[in-house]
Amino acid sequence: MDSKNLPRGIDVRHGCLRYRKVINGIRHEKTTTLKPTASDIKFAITDFKDWVTSITYGIEDEIDERDQVQEPKTFRDVAELYLLAKKKGKLKYSTLKGYQEVCNFWSDRLPGHISAITSKKLIAIDERIEWKNERTRHNKLTPLKGVFKYALLKGFIDSNPTGVLQDGKYEITEPDPYTQDEVDRLMAELDQTHYSLFFRIAFGSGMRTGELIALTWDKFDGESLYVNDSIVLRKQTDSTKTRKPRRVLLGDDEIQLLNSAPRPIQGGPIFTSHHTHKPMTTGKPPLEAWKDAHRSSGVRKRDGLYPWRHTYISSMLSHGVDPQLVANQVGDNIATILDYYYRYIPRQNDHEIVRNALSQIRENGAKMGQKSDYKN
Questions:
Q1: CA distance 30 to 26
Q2: Are the C-beta atoms of residues 143 and 102 closer than 8 Å to each other?
Q3: For residue 290, which of 198, 177, 197, 190 has the smallest C-alpha distance?
Q4: Global pTM value
Q5: By three-state DSSP, how is residue 110 classified?
Q6: Backbone phi, psi, residue 264, to 5°
């Protein structure tokens, strides 16, 4: 779509797309970071509708909240107000969606007025649930505690009963990358499927699943891929997980594969579903082939959302690529790279590093002393 023929409500201001809409007699305006390109305009059309809906329902929710403040509140009632407050606080869509699911989880287990929920009752429910692991329990407790904290702040309850639910200690598992031999064995199986290109680019770039399925042909310039958005929970976002757009350099093999892949005249998504050949809104279709490839090859399957990312990062670091450059390539923070992948970074002998530093400090001190004597 040409930028001169934008849909009603969307125009260009200072080189970026702007949304404008009058709702209930009030003028609303939002300047985005989207550019007037074909892919950004396509995304803006859907995003504009969501923006209008959020404003419309946001106004209704504010009225609804004022009307209900004096009424008795169940846990579900308060959870809805808590989520509304989080939404206004610009919590990321994926996190908000996760919080909503967790609140539903607890709402089914906590009927009745929220003030009637005691610490003893929460302990009994907590002990009855067979948690998968301590991390899962932690993720379920966070929104629960948030709802009760909100209820206390609003005066719906006199005390917060969740203080008895202490987090247990859980370990953050270290990266478990594939060896090159394992990658070759997996790809021998995956090359026979519809998702061969998907996994070749995954291992060759370290991208997250949502970033991969959001890729379109206009983001490939012949040697790199521009990553500026993602698809999370079937919804296209306007940024990546760390909100850092980046250009990912590709190897010769990946470049050749993309150049030789069938490309629709009108562009569109690079990866499609095997069943429908339509754009993917979830990473489940390629993951079915991923599981089958492990069974066929005998390669041990790794846990986690995208183990090819761990393989890419650890391999790049092991081959001496600067950690900051690796962080830029994969769209992560340098602190995460240094902490999580520390053992893959080649390092000199610690003993020699310290001794060399002390030697240099002494030499510099001696030189400064000589200069001082000369002046006297």
A1: 13
A2: yes
A3: 190
A4: 0.57
A5: coil
A6: -60, 145
What single string gives the DSSP state of each residue in 228-258? --EEETTEEESS-TTS--EEEE--HHHHHHH
**120-124: long-range pairs with CB below 8 Å, 24+:** 121/161, 122/161, 122/162, 122/164, 122/165, 123/164, 123/165
Tell me the three state secondary structure of residue 337: helix
**Rounded Cα gap, residues 134 and 138, in angstroms:** 6
Give the separation between CA 113 and CA 117, rounded to whole angstroms. 7
Residue linked to tokens 């489940």? 284
> What is the C-alpha separation between 219 and 227, in angstroms, rounded?
7
Q: Which two tokens stand for residue 339?
A: 């902490």
Q: CA geometry: angle at 231 spanning 35 and 170, to 5°? A: 130
The contacts of residue 131 (CB under 8 Å, 6+ apart) are 137, 140
For residues 305 and 209, give the distance between their C-alpha atoms in angstroms, rounded to a whole number.
8
Contacts of 62 by beta carbon, 8 Å cutoff, 6+ apart: none
CB 225 within 8 A of CB 199: no
CA nearest 237: which of 50, 369, 6, 29?
A: 50
* β-strand partners of 22: 27
Question: Whose CA is closest to 218, among 43, 50, 49?
Answer: 43
Kindly give the confidence (pLDDT) of every residue in the chain, 376 residues in length, as a single tens digit, with 9 standing for 90 and above: 555 678 888 999 888 888 888 876 778 888 887 888 877 787 788 778 877 776 765 533 443 444 444 455 889 989 988 888 887 766 677 788 888 899 999 998 998 888 889 888 898 888 888 787 788 888 899 999 999 998 888 888 888 899 888 876 555 568 899 999 999 999 999 999 999 999 999 999 999 999 999 999 999 999 999 999 988 777 788 788 777 899 999 999 999 999 999 988 888 999 998 877 788 888 888 999 999 999 999 999 997 778 999 999 999 999 999 999 999 999 998 988 988 898 998 876 767 778 788 888 888 776 666 655 555 4
Tokens 């989207």 belong to: 34
Distance CA 199, CA 307 (A): 11
Tell me how far apart the alpha carbons of residues 298 and 300 are, in angstroms, rounded to a whole number.
6
Distances (CA, A) of 320 to 153, 297, 325: 52, 30, 11
